[in-house]
């Protein structure tokens, strides 16, 4: 146990030091630190979806909708948009310690609302309904600019305030807001090291991810977690054992949605801009692929899958940008338009995602880093039957001719 604690501590220290090392490399710099920040957001999303799919076995294809709810909630409460639309008397500037719990509660309520009508659905039917929910949220945000401009439609909401801690007024006249007590948009110093805003965001995201990992682990080993897993394996048997199937499913939807709402708040403040195009079906598939690739129900596997699939596209983009000029100059027997389309980073990303998932399903159906229980279910051989004692074997398999049986005489035979 002590050895595991030391390993976890060293791993955390490594993740803390990572942005400083990346920022010090000239060819990487702040751009890759920002990419690492987005990777932490994907880890948070994957942890939330793992509760719904990995623990409870509910195939949620519209999980990105909860992400959108948290993002738009922060955008409305920490930007001048509602004031410019004439819906408020001043610029809203709600602090971090209020918006994050509010977004978590709002996403959890939406999770219960979407979970209640689909309690009796399973498998593909559940996936279709939840997929529709995610698309409805996106279309809803895309059209809420008429007759009241609430979300600014497809143009999105900009000028979103960075994450900050403030104990002053939550609304002020334009241009008259007080300076926040603490803001992640300001640089500061740590042991002589300059901590830029992108590093500050990364460290804060890492802190939230660690809290969510601890919470996920506690849920996994709790009575609720074991009940979710029983429900995942066999709903009928779990219900026969006295488990409340309805409440357990609603709780799984709510807990998973909470993670999505919090990550949406962090994304909105980090990006400074939100629009419906940030929450497409492709994002839901991306998060689902992270959970499947890493290993459903495995916290460490989900984290690994999220890190791989969030960083790999950027690696491909840099690789393609480096290879493309050489190929365009030296390969003359193929049309330049075809080469340009083939060497497109987004196209290659989709091809690699599909190929990687096929390989995982073929050779490691349990994921890259599954839980010990899942690995045992899929790979361990059936136990050998217990050996039969020699005396018992002789008695059982003795020929009928060698056995002597005496039956009581019947009354008719006596007569």
TrEMBL record:
It is a multi-pass membrane protein. The chain crosses the membrane at residues 34-56, 63-82, 94-116, 123-141, 198-216, 250-273, 285-309. One of its GO terms (cellular component) is plasma membrane. GO terms for molecular function: branched-chain amino acid transmembrane transporter activity. Keywords: Cell membrane, Membrane, Transmembrane, Transmembrane helix. The keyword Cell membrane applies. It is found in: Cell inner membrane. InterPro entries: ABC_transp_permease, LivM-like. It comes from the Bacteria. This is ABC transporter ATP-binding protein.
């Amino acid at each position: 146990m002590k050895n595991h604690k030391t390993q976890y501590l060293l791993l955390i220290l490594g993740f803390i030091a990572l942005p400083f090392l990346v920022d010090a490399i000239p060819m990487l710099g702040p751009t890759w630190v920002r990419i690492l920040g987005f990777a932490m957001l994907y880890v948070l999303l994957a942890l939330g979806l793992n509760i719904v799919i990995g623990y409870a076995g509910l195939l949620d294809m519209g999980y990105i909708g909860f992400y959108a709810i948290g993002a738009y909630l922060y955008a409305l409460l920490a930007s001048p948009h509602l004031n410019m639309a004439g819906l408020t008397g001043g610029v809203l500037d709600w602090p971090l310690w209020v918006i994050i719990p509010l977004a978590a509660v709002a996403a959890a309520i939406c999770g219960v609302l979407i979970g209640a009508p689909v309690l009796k659905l399973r498998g593909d039917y559940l996936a279709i309904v939840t997929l529709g929910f995610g698309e409805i949220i996106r279309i809803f945000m895309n059209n809420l600019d008429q007759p009241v401009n609430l979300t600014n439609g497809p143009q999105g909401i900009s000028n979103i305030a960075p994450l900050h801690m403030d104990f002053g007024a939550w609304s002020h006249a334009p241009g008259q807001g007080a300076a926040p007590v603490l803001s992640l948009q300001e640089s500061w110093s740590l042991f002589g090291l300059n901590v830029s805003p992108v590093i500050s965001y990364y460290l804060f995201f890492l802190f939230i991810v660690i809290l969510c990992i601890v919470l996920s682990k506690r849920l996994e080993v709790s009575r609720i977690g074991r009940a979710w897993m029983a429900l995942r394996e066999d709903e009928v048997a779990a219900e026969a054992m006295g488990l409340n199937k309805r409440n357990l499913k609603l709780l799984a939807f709510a807990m998973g949605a909470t993670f999505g709402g919090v990550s949406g708040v962090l994304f909105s403040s980090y990006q400074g801009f939100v629009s419906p195009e940030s929450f497409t079906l492709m994002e839901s598939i991306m998060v689902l692929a992270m959970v499947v690739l890493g290993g459903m129900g495995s916290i460490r596997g989900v984290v690994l899958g999220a890190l791989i699939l969030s960083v790999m596209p950027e690696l491909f983009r840099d690789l393609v940008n480096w290879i493309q000029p050489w190929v365009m100059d030296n390969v003359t027997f193929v049309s330049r338009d075809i080469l340009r389309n083939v060497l497109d980073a987004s196209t290659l990303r989709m091809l690699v995602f599909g190929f990687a998932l096929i390989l995982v399903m073929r050779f490691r159906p349990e994921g890259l880093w599954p839980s010990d229980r899942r690995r045992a279910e899929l790979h361990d051989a059936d136990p050998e039957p217990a050996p039969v004692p020699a005396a018992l074997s002789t008695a059982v398999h003795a020929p009928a001719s060698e056995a002597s049986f005496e039956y009581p005489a019947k009354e008719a035979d006596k007569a």
